[in-house]
Batch of 3 targets.
Target 1
Amino acid sequence: MTDLLATGPAANDTGEPGPAAACTWEELHRACEEAGGIDAGNGLLLARSATLATVVGGPATSDGPLTGCLRPGGTLVRTPRGYVLDGEWPGVPGAETASRFGLVAQRDSIAGIGTEPVLVLVPRGAVHIGTNRPAGLLSVHPRTVSVTGLAVPENAVHDAFAPGTGHLLPVTARCAETSVLLGLARRALTEITRTARHRSRLGSVHRMAEEPLLQTELNRTVQDFRAARALFHTELARLPDSASGTTLTTARRVTFAAAALHTYQTAIETIRFSFGKAGGSALYNGHALQECWRDAETLAREFLVSPRAERAVAHAQLGGRPQPGLI
C-alpha cells in the first residue's frame, strides 16, 4: 500500500511557481500536507497563517501569532473617522493563543455598486472569543470570534481581493488548505490498510484484507485519490511565480479553484470511506480513524468548499464573472 500512496511528482529544488520568493507553491503544499498528516488542526492553523501572511505580514513576527477566518462574517461601515466593524466568524483555529486576527467583512463597494469583501486585521484585545467548539480539530481549539462596534483605522483594512493584488489570498488558501486535507487522507488510508491487514470482522477467521469486496473498494478509493492528487499537482505547477511579475489570469485561477475543490472533496470522501470500513473499533475515542473522520467533517464545512463556493466555481467555469473572495 505504501507504493499506492506515493503519488504526485517528485520534489525538486528548481524553484516551483510560488506565492513569494521565499516560499514557492510547492514548498507551501509540502509543508501543509506534512502537517495535515500529523495533526489536521495544526495543519489548518499553519495554512491559515500562511494565507493571511500574504496580505498582512508574517505569521510569526513581533506582533504575535496570526489566525483568522476567510468566511465573510461581518460588515465594515465607513465613517468620518475611519471604519466600524461588526460581525461573527465561526471556527477560527488557534483563537485562544493568537494575538492578531485576519477577518473578512463586507463593505460598500468603492464603485458605489453593491458590496465587496475586505480583510480586516484586528488585535486580540478587540475581539470576543466564544466557548463553543466543533467536534474536530481539537488540538487548535477552534472558536467563534465576534466583534461589536469596533473602530478600525484605515491601515487595518486590506483590499485583499482586489484585482491589483493578483487575487493571491483565495489561491493561497486553496493551495494550503487542500494540502492539509491531502495529508489527512493519506493518514486515513494508511490506517485503514493497517487495520485491514491485522484485523478480522466479528465472526470471521479471515483478515479484512482478504475480503475481495474490500480489496476492490479500497483499490478504487486509492486510485480516485491518486488521480485527484495528481490533478492538484498539475494545476499547482502551472501557477506563476509571483517573483516573476506574472499576474494570475482569470482562467488560471478558475481552473486551479476547480481542481482544488475536486481534490478537497475527494480527500473528504476518502476519509469517510476509511472510517466507515474500519469497523466498530473506530467508533471509540482516541482511535486514529475516528480522529481523522472528526477532523475531516469539520474541515468539510470550511468556506472555500461550501455549497456557495462550489456554485461560484461552476459559474466561473461556464464564463460567469468570478466572485471576489472565492476565486
Target 2
Amino acid sequence: MPLTRRQRITSQTSNVVFAANEATAIANALDGDPGNTVAVSNPFPFWPSINKYDNDNNNPFNAVSNPVYVWSETPADPGESFGFAVRSNSIPLSLALGNEYLIALAVVSDNAHQVTISAYNAATLGLIATQTNLNFSLADGPLATGTTELSPPFGWQKVRFYTIPANLGVAVGVSLDIFFVISFTAVNYSSNGPDNPAGLAFIADIYQSTLV
C-alpha cells in the first residue's frame, strides 16, 4: 500500500510546549498553545545531535530544520522533571486515504525520558479509543530526579529510535480529521556540580497509507 508523506516534526522552541507534568503539556498542546520552551544555552559539548543527511532526498521532509535541544528554562536546575508535548498537523481520512500510519521517531535527552504517541479526533479533541500500537509509553531510564549515573553509557549518550505501524480502527470512508500528539516526561537528575545542563531533542516522521 503506497504511503503519503504527512509531516516531519522536529523539536523547536516554536512548537514544543512544556508544563509541570506530561498530562498538562498534552492538554496545552490539544488547546493549540504555541511552543513555550527555550533553546538550551549551555549544551554539554559531548551531547549527540540528530541531523538529517546533507543530501537528504526525502522531499518535502528534507526542508525541515534539524532538531534543537529544548527545555523549560536555561540554564536548567538540577533535579527537575517536566512534561513536554508537540501536536502534529491535522490529517484527513477519506475514501482515498486510509487510517493506517507509519511513524518513525528518534529522541535524545539529558538525563532520561518517557515518550508516548497518541492519536486524537481533530473535531472533538478526544483520544481515539480504537487506535492500535499507539498511546503506549516508551521508557528511557529511571524518571526519579534523585537517580545517580555512575558509569557510561550515560543516558545522554543514547539516541533512542522507534518505528511503529499504527491503525486507528476507523472505518474506511469515514470523513474525519485526526492529529497526533507526541508527549514526554523528561528528567534532569540531581547533581552536586554547578553545571548540570538538561535538554530534549527529537524528530518524528509521519506517513499515511493511500488506498490506491
Target 3
Amino acid sequence: MATRLSVENKIAAIEDKGNNTALEVRDVLTELLNYTENQPFPPGQDVEFFHFWTDGNPVKDKLGNLLWYSIKGIKGQWINFTFRVEINISNPASTNNMFDNVFTFPIQNKDEKLLQYLKDIVVLNSPTVRFVIPYTISNGEQILDYPLSTSIYFSEKNMIVFDFNNIIYTKDFSELGIAKGYAFSSVSFHCPPFKLGKV
C-alpha cells in the first residue's frame, strides 16, 4: 500500500533537468493516486450522508399552500435545507386584527426517517434561529422582491414550520399579514458547542 513517504521518495527522484521518462512520471502519479485512495475522508471518521426531497409534487399545509424541499447533509454534523415555499392563502386575522403567520407543512411519508438525522443537529419544536429570506410578490403590474424575517424549524410530529411572525420566543401574532407570493432560498444548520438561550 502506498504511503506518504513512498510518494515523497518518488517525487524526490524526479530529475530537475527534464530527463524523466513518461514511465517514471506515470509511476509517480500512480503512487500518488494509490496513496490518496487509501486515505479515509475525513481521516478517522465514518461519514454518513443523507438526502430527502420532494419528487416534483410539493407538500401542502392545511390551507393549500405549497412547499418543495431538498434536505441533505452529514449525519450528526450538518444539514442544508433548500426550499421553495408558495403562500397562496394567508391564515385569517384574529379578533384583535392580528395575523398568525405560521405555516406548517408535513414531511412526506417516505421521508419520515428525516427526524432521526435532524435531532442531533437542530433544535426541534422551537423557532430559535431567525434570519431573512427573499420573498417575491406581484401587485398585478410589477413583481416585487422584499426581505422577509422568518424562522424555519422542524417539529417532532414530522412537520416543517415556517414562522413569519416578527416576534421570537413568544406565541404572539403579528400585526402584518403575509401577501400572496413565494420564496426560494437555502439555509444551513449545524449544532454548535454552546446552547441557544433566551435574550
